[in-house]
Specification:
It contains one helix and three strands. It has 67 residues and is an alpha+beta fold. It has one domain. It has a three-stranded antiparallel beta sheet with strand order 1-2-3, covered by helices on one side. Strand 2 and strand 3 form a beta hairpin.
């Protein structure tokens, strides 16, 4: 399965968060954060069916704000 992932650079490295479940992991590099997230998601979905998530009424979008 494919999942939407947000990657954010922070002081101590990178945080990768899978949007649908909120499962997150971190690493020193983007690649390490993604590898750690993959492992975390595999463990998470061993006990949770991805089809059970209530995402039917959810969508991802963007907006523009003047700052």
């Amino acid at each position: 399965m494919r999942f939407p992932v947000l990657i954010k650079h922070e002081e101590l490295g990178y945080v990768a968060t899978e949007i649908s479940s909120g499962v997150a992991s971190q690493g020193d590099t983007v690649e390490e954060a993604m590898a750690m997230l993959k492992e975390a998601l595999e463990l998470y979905y061993e006990d949770n069916d991805p089809g059970e998530a209530d995402t039917a009424n959810c969508f991802l979008t963007t907006m523009e704000v003047s700052v």
